[in-house]
Amino acid sequence: MTSRTFQNKLKRGVMSGAALTALMAGSAIAEPVQFSVPPGSLSKALTDFSRQSDREILVSADLVAGKQSTGLEGAFEPEDALSALISNAGLSYRVTPSNVFLIDASAIQQTSPDQEVVNESSVQSEPVVQTAAAATEERREQTIVVVGSHIQGARTTEALPVTLIGQEQLAAIGADSGDDLFRSIPQMGDVTFNSTYLPQSSNAARGDVGSVNLRNLGIGNTLVLLNGRRVVLHPTSRANENLVPVLTYNTNAIPTAGVSRIEVLRDGAAAIYGADAVAGVVNTVLREVNNGGDLTVQYGGAEGTDLRQLDVNGTFGTDFADGRGNVSLFLGYTDRSELSTTDQSWTATADRRSFFTGTDFEGVGTLDRTSTISGWGNFATVGTGTVRQNGVALTTSAGAFSVIPSANGSCATSLGDGVCLRASNRATTGTDRNTRYDTNAVGTSLMPEVERINLFSTFRYDMPSGMQTFGELGYYFAETNAWQQSSTMLSSARITVPSTNYWNPFGATLLPDGSVNPNRLPGLNISPNGADVTLTSYRFDDFGLSNVNVENHQFRFLTGVRGEVGDFDWESALLYSRASVRDEQDGVSSTRLQEAMSWSTPDAYNPFNGANPADPQGLDTTLSNAAALDYARIRTERYSRTSLAQLDFKLSRPDLFTLPGGDVGMATGVELRRDLQLDDRDKHVDGTITFTDTETGITVPSDLVGTSDTPDTKGSRTVGSAYIEFAVPLVSPEMNIPLMQSLEMQAAGRYENYSDFGDIAKPKVALSWTVVDSLRFRGSWAQSFRAPNLEQINATVVSRSNTRTDWVRCEADVRALRIANFSDCTGYGFATTGRRAGNPDLQAETADTWTVGAVLQPRIMPDHFGSLTLTADLWNVEQEGLIGIYGEGNALILDYLLRTQGSSNPDVVRAAPTADEIAAFAGTGLDPVGRVLYVNDAYRNLQPQNLRGVDFSASLALHETPVGRFNFDVNVAHLIEYERAASPDIQALLDARAAGEINSGTIIPEGGNLLRQDGSPRWKWNASMTWQPTEAITIGAYTQYTGYFWDTSILNSAGENWRVDDQQTVNLYAQYAFDEGFAQNTRVRLGVRNVGDQLPPMDSSATGYNGALYQPYGRYWYASIRKSF
């Protein structure tokens, strides 16, 4: 059975099963829970109850210590069962709006704030035991989140800045993918891996992918956990702002159907979790489902577009062995249609000039983001000098000529059918601007079509010996289809059209069969044998748009066991996870293309027929013969794989010994991890099949038109680590110290040994100082690190082509008075190849982080009415040894500077200047330059960066009002400082620009203040509100704000950047839950995201918006129905 056949059967099976479940659910009636709780310890009985009922409990350790329970057998409602279990202990309970049981020694009938207690060490719901002194206060208002600690129930986690996204916030956000969900976190920086990023080649990650970037420290600086353990990295990389390949965790692989909550630790945590936890940790906790489940179907779409999405999500679970075991299953299915650039007027053109009319940027030439490379080609005859027809020059002295629409004028000779030949390259910023290629107008994909399946299950079984086994099994699959622009020439891999080409206007007088060549122009001053012609700028548009198909697979298996030995809790687990990506795309073989261009029959490929004379910027209508197209067309494939294998052992005890302030907790553990990355490039790219020009003899490593060569890479590493953590109560309430109700400290350290770059050890210290019941201060200091990824270490020479400006040509034009200033320099952006190499001597990026903050819980209202919690945390990160390269753009600026001084940059390798280039530099005082062949570079540890900011949050719960219950949450991220020191080489360029040695219009990545530079806004915040007027009705609202930033890719005449405006959007939903009749246990919801139908703020990119911060559509409606059973 083929992989695709298996996937199709799996999809049909999932949907058929979902449909069958829905039919069965239609007649299902809610049943009591089957309990099997043996007599014995009350603490153990409450643990069993929590697991069997799938309900969370918060209780003080002192309340249950030494008490017994008579046990419970049979089917009961959870409330009745809990009452029976605690009846003989003199205890009572109350229920929060989120269904958490709060147990107290006195009967309290009112509800409490909607807060949850979570435990990273045990992902199933369990009672969390705290010290008695703060139990009442904590159950009132403070969520205890143990992400950030390995000590179960440690109070030192109060020292840690943690954001919790619970069920109410999840509903208000209305996210339909992991990417949407993680974007909603204000502390999340720019999401550079996203499905709207669709590069022309497979050299960068694309498809169904989303990234994690807390604090904007960069991809790779945030650790992602699932149920407290690592997840595998997404296999394909992309270049970051430092132009080095980075890898991310794919947020779309998170099984959102089973999410109970998301915990965001906004603090360095390498001492707890190891590598990558520099900015913090994001832990997704899945829920356990007992004897039932639900099925949800949702359908939605964006107004004014063809974007539509169907989501089917289900959760199912069952207990077995009298409640000692449980299996839970979560499924998610998504089918989303494509969003095309032509769906909306604001994305239907890459020429952005009209959108800036009336601003200070009106008339800036660089706002035309259409491509200068089109089916209207630039060519050069080889070795002919000026070609003339009856004395009229058809080429320049270097042989350059172009094919243009006859209507554009200045034709040297006609080629027929509205196409002519001009004796120069196209004037793409003037007369021939209409021959540029509009990548948006031809209907490329803005967002790909997506089909996604997420299947995940959890397992737990309590053995008679007292140990518990647990496990996870997950599978993620996604397939995307998109349409990309057609292939173009790389300046470093030009192709020669042989003189034998049937359509060559400078071909031989006679064809091989002796007949007269009908396409050779008459009256030429060249040999009867004809002339070869080099394609210098050409788009192979008659091959049509390029189809891109990307398949993602991810598999996760975990098995573990936990138990007690003496007074210690222990846990061990084995984890294996693998991810793979298969990226397929239409392409053109350079070798086969040149063969097709050598044919002397009408079947030959014809690059001289232009594109579409009636609509020069439209799709090519003058197609070459199908035989040539089919012969040269290929389907390329890139296969990438990563895997993660981990074995860990944890040991913890909450009362290792006792100090005057209380019991000292301890946790220690060891981990052994094996990481692997494999990148198998297509044979046309990895050097297996190269291209040798039959006419020039020049060989280039890549045979794929428009794609740089990239060798296959493979790397692996073994990581051994050990850690220890202490929770130390320094002061307790019983010590009666004024203004110090309690003081707790967390001290931790971790050592890791990497097989490829050596050892590293990092510490952490955190403090929590409770002044009074309503006021707590907290702070931490930690050292963290990010290990260089396997691609950065193991890559051989990698060629990457990016559009870079050859600034010395701009200088020549200014000196020759052809342009007024550098803002008019739009014709010298070329596809420039950088030859980059991995570096086995790279060291880890290191960071020092600290946070200080406060938690205020004022008693401004009675407990039964509600509660208010306010937090503020100031944070700072100082990071060193960032991995980067010098970059082709900087190398060209340095070359420009050195050439004004009479030398040049040896890392910039150029061809010899042509006669036309010599003429262009005449009289400028600059030596003429040829085209750039490539730029040499390598990965290295470079400059440091510093970031500082402050986070605010507010949570207000109103439980008893005349109109129902309310919950309000606000989360604010304010970035105060984002600075990256310029390396000495970059600083030299900046100094030269400041001194006037190079033009002020040069664009140099300055380092310095990067705040609000092409992203990284100063302010991001969100707020949510949930209102329950009755038990059946829920209304939710969510708003998100993103501050402004500067688009540094354009300058006006005053040298100023464009300001990309801020934006605030609002989401709303309303739902109704039926509690009787046929619709019993059914919930319907109607929601709308972006109520105000606001488009993303405009920038100067070809698509007109920043995809790392915004989605490319306005108002989005959705409706869903859920059936529980």
UniProtKB/TrEMBL annotation:
Compartment(s): Cell outer membrane
Keyword Signal (UniProt): yes
Residue intervals passing through the bilayer: none
Limits of the Secretin/TonB short N-terminal domain: 55-106
Stored SMART domains: STN
Gene Ontology biological process: iron ion transport
Keyword field: Cell outer membrane, Ion transport, Iron, Iron transport, Membrane, Receptor, Signal, TonB box, Transport
Family the entry assigns: Belongs to the TonB-dependent receptor family.
Name this polypeptide is given: TonB-dependent receptor
Lineage of source species: Bacteria, Pseudomonadati, Pseudomonadota, Alphaproteobacteria, Hyphomonadales
